[in-house]
Amino acid sequence: MEFPQLQKPVDGKITYPPGVKEITEKISNDEVVKRLKMVVKTYMDMDQDSEDEKQQYLALALHLASEFFLRNPNKDVRLLVACCLADIFRIYAPEAPYTSHDKLKDIFLFITRQLKGLEDTKSPQFNRYFYLLENLAWVKSYNICFELEDCNEIFIQLFKTLFSVINNSHNQKVQMHMLDLMSSIITEGDGVTQELLDSILINLISAHKNLNKQAYDLAKVLLKRTVQTIETCIANFFNQVLVLGKSSVSDLSEHVFDLIQELFAIDPLLLLSVMPQLEFKLKSNDGEERLAVVRLLAKLFGAKDSELAGHNRLLWQCFLGRFNDIHVPVRLECVKFASHCLMNHPDLAKDLTEFLKVRSHDPEEAIRHDVIVTIINAGKKDLNLVNDQLLGFVRERTLDKRWRVRKEAMMGLAQLFKKYCLHHEAGKESAQKISWIKDKLLHIYYQNSIDDKLLVEKIFAQYMVPHSLETEEKMKCLYYLYACLDPNAIKALNEMWKCQNMLRSLVRELLDLHKLPVSEANNTSMFGKLMTIAKNLPDQGKAQDFMKKFNQVLGEDEKLRAQLEQLISPTCSCKQAEVCVREITRKLTFPKQPTNPFLEMVKFLLERIAPVHIDSEAISALVKLLNKSIEGTADDEDEGVTRDAAIRYGLELLKVLSFTHPTSFHSAETYESLLQCLKMEDDKVAEAAIQIFRNTGHKIETDMPQIRSTLIPILHQKAKRGTPHQAKQAVNCIHAIFHNKEVQLAQIFEPLSRSLNGDVPEQLITPLVSLGHISMLAPDQFASPMKSIVANFIVKDLLMNDRSVGNKNGKLWTSDEEVSPEVLAKVQAIKLLVRWLMGMKNNQSKSANSTLRLLSAMLVSEGDLTEQKKISKSDMSRLRLAAGSAIMKLAQEPCYHDIITPEQFQLCGLVINDECYQVRQNFALKLHLSLVKLMLPLEYLAVFALCAKDPVKERRAHARQCLLKNISVRREYIKQNPMPHEKLLSLLPEYVVPYMIHLLAHDPDFTKPQDFEQLRDIKECLWFMLEVLMTKNENNSHAFLRKMVENIKQTKDAQSPDDPKANEKLYIVCDVALFVIVNKSTACHLESPKDPLLPTKFYTPPDKDFINDKEYLSAEARTVLLTGKPKPTAVLGTVNKPLSVTGRRPYNKAPSSETGSNVSGNSEPSSPAGNRGRDVVMEASETGASENEENPVIMKTDVGKKDMNSEAGQGGAAKKRAAGAASVGSSENAGASESTTPTPPVLNKPRRGRPPKSLAGGAGGASSAEKEAGSGGGAGGAGRGRKRAAPAQDITSSPMVEPITIKIPKQQKDTEGKRAAPQRQMDLQR
Q: Where is the sequence biased in composition, kind Polar residues (predicted)?
């Protein structure tokens, strides 16, 4: 296509403006410049309407486009020519005077080259360059090039030139003209080619952006101005690269994601059609590609003012899906993005929460860690950015299996607590939102890891009660923090102080050893202390080495010892402690190293033992706060605590500190305040105050006579008429702090012993407590007087006499407030008996035997010692618990343990299977606490095996945890204290097996030795214990266990050596135990390293002539034990359909999820019945039982209303607890066929059911009204446990008992029925 032609001059001569001579090659450059300036002036003054002049100077216009000018080497000449040409295009517009396409191309390329002169704004010619740019932009001269075939080359060159010359010295006008020039080309052309687009986009790349910020800004504004036109071209480019994968279309293909980010920041409309393409990329098979897209979208979605998530929901949902990507880096990137998103877009928190929840449980440690960082960072910026769910994820991760994750979660929560709760940076509402943090952080102190404990201590010292605060402020923090903690957090905090105090004592003992002469015994003691200290530091292996090194340094450096001694001194103040720590650290920093692990370990030790919070000044500050609360002048309400709570918890805090820092309390001011507390009405306040005096008042008698004279009458009054707890503390306080304690105790003992009156039980409880503790603390003085009190009043008048009739509501347990005063007095009477005996520590008067028979009778009679049926069921539960606990307490004293018979031991152990949930719960807790302190003999650990029969899952789980803890403690003790094999009989956990086998052989439920159901129960109990014992095969312990059980089969039951049936039951339990061991371990057939010893109290010595190689388990019984069901027979036509038979429960496989973490890796893989006893019974307890009822009854049909466990069913009024074996057998059969109506499936067979006493021992004497009371009141129910009767003792129907030597008939050996016992039942209370 040719441009329209202007009329050429006829004569072909060039007309120059007036005064301008001809411009030829022959004149000098200076002359050319001089003449061109005049030509420029002429063209500048011309306008488009000057037709004559346009025609006149047409030849000149053509001449100026000649090669002479376009290729002139002189810069000034080229500039002037370019200005002329620009004016020519302006004047002759819209037709150009040049007809050749090639010429036009040359001209525009020439003009473009001249625009480079714009770069130097200080050049004398810059104004002419600016004029050139302005002219071109105003006229849009470059639009002429649209008609050229290769116009793109010109535009690309122009764009590149303009972007290269723009710099920070240009003013706004220059940028504006450049934009006008380029935007006209983009908007008025047919489209933007890829090369031209590249020339714009390249300025957005980071490398170019950093080189020329002005070019970046120019491109940004240009794109924003031309968004409507250029968006299509951008979409096409990204489509080619992202969707079609044509990376060759542009050199910028590798920068697509960077470009998308930049373009989005410029104007999201530029990517209107590109965003859907990213959804396709998010689903790429290439993990690295997905990662790149996720990184990009994270920036786009997370940008401050981004609305992308709202405008493009599909892409947002697709992006959220990447939180679950299989590629770890992708998930990690998503989690990191969440932090910015939460901070910049709180409205998206709801969408993110669910995905962060999943990632908080990610298998990758780094991802779980970053989830915490994400949430905490957002929370630190503004607590409102994180909802309760997100904070809940952090809370969960404080128990993560990885230390790095746990640490991040704990530190994050600590920082939030300090910011919002301590400093109140966002008001009370925010503080209330995260008030749970303080409790949660302290709960972590219960974890086994020493790293967790150390971090909690650090958090407490730096974030919860910052040690850097002034004493008054610091104690105020502690005072109100303690008042706001939940009970478990308080226990944890108390334990923390206790551990720190214990460690201080160890270091003190170590320093004392350094003062002694060097000896082998001294070195051994020192080594033991060092090992114990190392156990309280992280990384025990390294800690041991570093503590040895530290001990060596202590031995060589006397000044260091002096500093350490001052640090652990009871009188060391917090400020002195800081100086000591600094000095010790300074001494150990030489030689200086980049990392000094030895120094770090010593710092850990110093941090734990240094008193950073509590000293005499701190105690005084706490007491002042307490006084203000008492006076009502404290700001308790502002701190969210009531006045009464502040006083109570303040005293509790002081009480705890009185154990760990007793010396800090020695001041008259402190004791005066405590005396005020003793006079307050709040019982707990007075009790705590007495205990503080007891712990800290050793110098009161000598140093503070005024305090002494005021304190003594108060203590006497509390011991006589205070609450039971106050009385206990008062007696102990007198014994601890006064020199004339005998006189003081006698002044309490005599009036109390004379005033005992069983007719007023309300006034008996406190005297009984005081008398019991007095007799225990001063046995030499009061043992004899107590004997007559025990004989004439405690036993004869109180325990053997029921004065009042209990509440017949049928409940098995009631709250403490509902317990009758008479029963409370009886419970205290039982405790008094035990305390009296524990004080004497001998059995010369045979009082212990009488007491044990009395306690056994209490258990046999189910708590109703007189069997007059006056006492209520809930009160009977209290008395059973008291009796069982009393026997267990006596067993802690060796002289009494030796006289406890196997029958009494079994009776005590069976309390853990009591029918009442609370009895089982409390007894198990007492049992565990005594065992874990190594106070009870090993045989009592066997009692936990019976917990396999507990119908409540939580109780089984608790029992298993107790077993794990006890076994761990015993193994650790043996490791720390090597001893001969003979002495291991009382400590080695494996030696619990003989006691367990004997206990299970005498289980009252075990009546039919070949009954599959009963054998499965035995197997459950055995596996409950063996599973924990066989977790590891340490020292070939599996073979040791096998050998032990085989040895038992070669002995006889010492309890009934001549009873074939008793011995058969023992051997059957042994065979079940061997079956379990052999099936669970492949190493049990190896040679046992030691020959096991057996307790002679339970087993006869082996007879050389007696070889017992008989197999007592039938093949069918083994099949049942292995598979959980007998072999199928041809008679049964239905498969997998259990038969519902009254009195028998079909086997149901427990769901694997029910036992959860309670089943270790050693759980039986091949036996579906493995955990049956722990789970199947939950049918009843977890479907129909109400947690709010004391003893829920599950009834679905009228049949269910037949209460098997009504009071009438539990026996006639005068019937004894021990029934004959034949009666038990017949009663079971009768129970199985008692009803022809099918039992509802939920009931099946009661887990620990027992036949009605009316069937077992004769006609029942209870009326129908009593039956209704029994069932309606909650005494019956499918889930209840069984009541056990003692196989040994019974009481007469006329309970007249001689003082001290309680006459309880012994076992009638010729009556087989005395060995069998009616079964008990359990309730499912929570």
A: 1150-1169
93: tokens are 């517009």
- ω into residue 94 within 30 of 0, thus cis? yes
pLDDT-flagged residues of the chain (< 50): 1-11, 1127-1326
Residue 496 confidence (pLDDT): 93
H or E, element range at 162: helix 151-165
What is d(CA 319, CA 331) in angstroms, rounded to the nearest whole number? 11
Separation CA 946–CA 542 (nearest Å): 42
Phi/psi at 656 (5° precision): -60, -45
Residue 757 CB neighbours (<10 A)? 12
Tokens of 1207: 């009071």
Task: Report pLDDT digits (tens) over 838-881.
Answer: 998 887 778 889 999 999 999 999 888 888 888 888 889 999 99
Which uninterrupted H or E stretch holds 1320?
Answer: strand 1320-1322
| pLDDT for res 55 | 67
Dihedral angle at the C-alpha atoms of 647, 650, 651, 655, nearest 10 degrees? 170
Report how far apart, in Å, the C-alpha atoms of 1145 and of each of 1119, 1140, 1168, 1200 are.
18, 7, 16, 15
Query: What is the C-alpha to C-alpha distance for residues 885 and 936, in angstroms, rounded to an integer?
Result: 12
What single string gives the DSSP state of each residue in 1033-1088?
-GGGHHHHHHHHHHHHTTS-BTTSTT-HHHHHHHHHHHHHHHHHHHHH-SSTTSPP
Tell me phi and psi for residue 1321, to 5 degrees: -130, 155
SS3 assignment, position 1261: coil
* d(C-alpha 359, C-alpha 771), whole Å: 61
Neighbour count for residue 51 (Cβ, 10 Å) = 8
Give the whole-angstrom CA distance, residue 736 versus residue 658.
14
Q: pLDDT tens digit string along 1131-1150?
A: 333 233 232 333 333 333 33
What is the DSSP secondary-structure string of 838-863? HHH---TTSHHHHHHHHHHHHHHTTT
